[in-house]
User: Fold this.
Amino acid sequence: QVKFVESGGGSVQPGGSLKLSCTASGSISGILAMYWYRQAPGKKRESVAGAFTGGGTNYLDSVKGRFTISRDNPKNIVYLQMDNLKPEDTAVYYCNTPGSLTWGQGTQVTVSS
Assistant:
């Protein structure tokens, strides 16, 4: 089973940017969908962005136009570029495939002035 390690989180001011990376322990070329999820304190985990093998993507409405997901299959890495960050984006961010029950440790993103 492929495992994922998230990195790139940090603390930024509103309007700032961060780029998250998700490094897989094996090939992601055959994985149909790769997703970034997030979980804020006291809230349920939600999907933020998905990237598919055919090149398609989808996004949570609240991040459309601000976040961009991309996948580098040869390097087995999935990225999440986050621009114009808002305090409500504060959460632990995870990457995974839909339906997987195994989660990594995630990476903390904090947006605060």
